[in-house]
Amino acid sequence: MLFRSKISQIILRSNIVILFFLLVKPAKSLLLRINMGLLSGSIIYLSGAIDNAKDDGVGWRRSMIESAKDLGIKWIDPTNKPAKFKPEIGTEKHLINRLKEEGDFEEIVRQVKRYRREDLRFVDISDSLIAYIDPDIHLAGTYDEIYLAERQCKPRFLIIKGGKKRCPNWLFGVFKVSDMFDSVDECIQRLRETDNGNYPVSREWVLIRDLI
What we know:
Structural class: alpha/beta
CATH topology of the largest domain: Rossmann fold
Shape: globular
Number of helices: 6
Strand content: 5-15%
């Protein structure tokens, strides 16, 4: 009888654990999702000039991340990469400039190919891309990233320093006018409206991470 009693207790505890995972955890997860916005947990890549930007493109990216930190978005900032990835600013940027002066172009190819591949892969895994364009600064990688996001049908947002009147003509064929902004703050406002459901979520958004 004692043996049977212990077996019964083990079975009862096992059933309680199973019920917890079947009922309690999904309910808790649902409550968490109810309290989160539509964009919480989404990944957004921040594209823009680095090579020819006076601040290496750090300023607007930091402003964007700080101002929208309450949205729960996961940002990919190429000026602030995790340690395992190839940096593009600071000493690494000085290295490329020195290699140019020395004429060691083959080494530049090796260096740049690595971070170009990483940055384009970052665009791959992102749910959306935000690009910042200063028409007075020559761009290269930014256009590469924008066109990749376009081919992948991701939602794309463009911030133009000086406003839409200064936007390069070609980009009017890449971005919707409604997705062009005159400032970082305007773009953040759009993210907030999308997050809280006040702005329609287009079919370009494929927010699947929380469902798999």
